[in-house]
Design a protein that fits this description.
This protein has 334 residues and is mostly beta strands. 6% of the residues lie in helices and 58% in strands. The protein has a single domain, classed as Lipocalin (Beta Barrel), CATH 2.40.128. It contains two helices and 17 strands. Strands 4-5-9-10-12-13-14-15-16-17 form a ten-stranded antiparallel beta barrel. It is globular. It starts with 9 loop residues before the first strand and ends with a helix.
Length: 334
């Protein structure tokens, strides 16, 4: 007699020999540090010309959060003791609603954010004093958009294991991705974005306002390498080919331009995962190409978040289950 070969098990809609899900079973609690950013880089004519990278002085935040089923709540604050010594970079006022949602088959990135106040990196670039940052409290950068994408191998590959911590990728797996994106953004300043002392080096000299919109399809690939069942490295790259419109405005004129430009999404995470614990560092970044009529070098918008997370799975008790029952009913309707 021969014993039957062990078959991969499936729980609802995925292969549990590749990853285990705690959705609807356990509460995922997390403690984390994070920092978000929306930056602007002015393209250069050649490699000898310095990069002009306008960076916001955003807070390093410390927070706590919880996930149950499809629902996540995170609360974080930029405590003063975490952000000492940053005053010389100037002050950035911002309202940030940058979100990255990971479902079983679909993921979504969305943006609705308002920034005011930037500085040039590194110290001394564009500044008459080499010991000071060139600060521009007048520069505003507003961005709105959404980018859905389909995870084709959702049976074996989990984004949530790395970025939401409510699943456990037990075996290496990857997935091709298909998606699209649409954006509208505006950069505005009281005077030219290029510092006057460096204007002759850039074709974008004199431009103080940039409006842009982009739309287009994309594709990519994501993969998680699992080492010793518990340690993992996740990497993901998506490329979009967008039709873009850009209007550049100077004090004397404005000019429109239409072009096809590539955008890139990067996602990476590494750490330790098990049935009870998840410890990882992660980075999600969107690189937007913005090409105006003034120069083929154009501009680059960079939007992202860096996070370090310690997460724990908790079994819901009778009282907690009663409170969470409405969430279970909502999830069952999906």
């Amino acid at each position: 007699m021969h014993a039957p070969a062990q078959q991969p098990t499936a729980e609802a809609d995925h292969d549990t020999t590749y990853y285990e899900s705690f959705m609807g079973k356990k509460i995922t609690g997390r403690y984390y540090f994070s920092q978000k950013y929306t930056a602007l880089e002015i393209g250069r004519n050649n490699k000898t010309t310095p990069r002009l990278r306008y960076t916001p002085n955003t807070n390093l935040n410390m927070g706590i959060g919880a996930t149950y089923g499809f629902f996540t709540l995170n609360l974080a604050f930029g405590f003063g003791f975490l952000n000492r010594g940053e005053e010389q970079k100037g002050k950035t006022k911002y309202w940030e609603n940058q979100g990255h949602m990971y479902g079983r088959k679909w993921g979504y990135d969305f943006y609705a954010q308002f920034y005011k106040g930037y500085y040039l990196y590194p110290k001394g670039l564009g500044s008459p004093d080499p010991n000071l940052y060139y600060s521009r409290p007048d520069i505003k950068f507003n961005l709105f958009g959404i980018a859905p994408f389909r995870i084709l191998n959702d049976k074996k590959f989990s984004y949530r294991a790395a970025f939401v911590q409510n699943e456990w990728q037990k075996r290496s797996a990857g997935s091709f991705l298909l998606g699209a994106e649409i954006y509208y953004g505006i950069v505005n300043a009281d005077s030219a974005l290029v510092p006057e002392s460096m204007a002759v080096l850039y074709k974008q000299q004199g431009i103080h306002k940039i409006q842009f919109s982009e739309i287009g399809p994309g594709a990519g690939y994501a993969h998680t390498l699992v080492l010793g069942r518990h340690f993992f490295i996740t990497g993901s790259l998506q490329a979009n080919m967008n039709l873009g419109w850009v209007r550049e405005t100077s004090k004397s004129s404005s000019e429109d331009d239409f072009s096809f430009t590539p955008n890139f999404y990067y996602r990476t995470a590494a750490g330790y995962n098990s049935r009870s614990w998840n410890v990882n560092v992660s980075w999600v970044s969107n690189r937007m190409s913005i090409r105006g009529a003034s120069s083929a070098d154009g501009y680059i918008g960079r939007v992202g978040i860096v996070r370090a997370t310690l997460a724990r799975q908790f079994q819901a008790g009778p009282k907690a289950k009663k409170i969470l029952k409405p969430f279970d009913k909502m999830a069952a309707k999906k």
